[in-house]
Amino acid sequence: MKIAYFTETFLPKVDGVVNTLCNLLDYLPERGHESLLFAPAGGPDRFAETRVMQMPGSPFPLYPEIKLVSPFTDVTEELYRYRPDVVHLLHPIALGFSGLRAAKALGIPVVMSYHTDLVAYARYFGFGALSQLVVRIERWIHNQADLNLCPSGPTLRELAGYGFERLKVWTRGVDTQRFSPARRDREMRMRLSGGETDKPLLLFVGRVSHEKRVHWLRSLIERVPGARLAIVGDGPARSEMEQLFAGTPTVFTGILRGEELARAYASADAFCFPSASETLGNVVLEAMASGLPVVAAGAGGPLDLIEHGRTGLLFDPNSEAAFADAVQKLVASGDFIRRAYSRAGREYAESRSWAAVHDRLLDDYARVAGLQMHKDLRIAG
Questions:
Q1: How many CB atoms lie within 10 A of CB 210?
Q2: Counting Cβ atoms within 10 Å, is residue 110 exposed (0-12), middle (13-18) or buried (19+)?
Q3: Which residues contact 323 (CB under 8 A, 6 or more apart)?
Q4: SS3 assignment, position 92
Q5: pLDDT by residue (tens digit) across 195-204?
Q6: SS3 of 127, please?
Q7: Over the stretch 212-251, which tens digit does the pLDDT of each residue have?
Q8: Which of 26, 156, 319, 380 is the most buried (most CB within 10 A)?
């Protein structure tokens, strides 16, 4: 098959969408498939064997690291020349809408995937009055797809309640060879703990932003005796958070990748994830694969990943105190309980291979393309 992808974010930005897409682009040649990627300008011209069509855009005011390509950009000619069997739009907003128009004009089947809970973000940033408008716009876009993919069961049920159609779960995998307890490293633990390796080391990995509720981690310093905190990642609130955590035993590492990230996970004692707006939570899976007991909000994607009291702890997503209580309970539970969480989480992660996830996605592509393969590509007008 030939697949054309449209994404609103790509390298050098790092997030769950980019990581998932990069993993998929690495995998496609192994199964004999070709791909073309349309992405905002600023990244590489090629990733693995995929050519990247870089589209000029403008920084989004709330997130300058995100470039928005005009939704009126005409990509019909490029898509016609490539002649894909299917077009996959990753959370279409602007560039994705251009891809949708071109695919519809050419009669190419369309798959869309939902990645970010924009309704929750609108409410969090004080634009709750706009949340229904966001729902209506997203529903109108997504209901033009032949198939809509969601990262988790809770997200699918929420979208179904909003009136989204043709929904199916496209879950995520994790590389259990890269993310493994075997990556535990004394030098990395020294770095993350500020040299106090005998103290409890709590870890957060993700975008350093307000909607991730990174500021909730501040209370853990007081609630967990002797705790050391490591915050891995970058984002628009990093400088503000560094001021908030000034004078505390907290290390900000910035973005870590590859083996360095894997060693960071495996060298901590617990993964603390306060965000309540996750459609899945790739970092939760990576932590579990690394043998870390996890504390996460009982909302959204983590509900699909964590079995409370066996692979980790879930807390009331509306309560900062409940988050701190859960982390305190985990640290105080003793090595035996934490090791049990670690083993169970690792066992679960081992059942989530990327190969199986990608093969199911390719089956979905083939099914959707097969329904419309009789349609000839055509230029409208």
A1: 16
A2: buried
A3: 216, 219, 272, 274, 295, 297, 315
A4: coil
A5: 999 999 999 9
A6: coil
A7: 999 999 999 989 999 999 999 999 999 999 999 999 999 9
A8: 156
